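Case 161 in the screening queue. Each case pairs one protein sequence with one candidate compound; here the compound is zinc ion. For every case the pipeline is the same: read the inputs, emit a complex structure as tokens, and attach any notable structural observations.

Predict complex for case 161.
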Amino acid sequence: MNERTTKKVIIDAGHGGSDPGTSRNGIVEKDYNLLISKYINKRLNELGIDNKMVRTTDETLSPSDRVKRIKSLYEPGNNVILISNHLNSGGGDGAEIIYALRNNDKLSKLIESNMIKAGQNVRKYYQRRLPSNPSKDYYFIIRDTANNESILMEYAFVDSS
Ligand SMILES: [Zn+2]
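Case 161 output:
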């Protein structure tokens, strides 16, 4: 079996429950994150790729509960990719891909080229550092899931025209 077929994927729908994330023009981020996550889950199942979702309902999860659940989905040390799904706001346009300081940009580049092929523009892929400790990742979902290859997707801006 090659490396490719042994990868597992954890799909994280960002926010949920009492934390709606961002919203504009009737688009509530938590709901779209869940729709996107369910779509990815369906596609990966069709492709025969082992995957699990962090939440499947409109559920409130604290950062520590979310990380705990992620760690419970597959045994640590496995070849697991974590994709945390989000939408952006603030007046930009296009997708952003944030990858972990511990990982290389190979997966981000692959996602970028496939998104462009699918017709969505991509602003950038990058790493984001914690200002108070630049040796650490900015986002907890990346920082606190160190056993995984973790990326945070901002698929689009809810306020882009
Ligand atoms: Zn978000």
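Case 161 observations:
- The longest strand covers residues 80-88.
- The pocket of zinc ion is lined by residues 14-15, 21, 29, 86 (CB under 6 Å).
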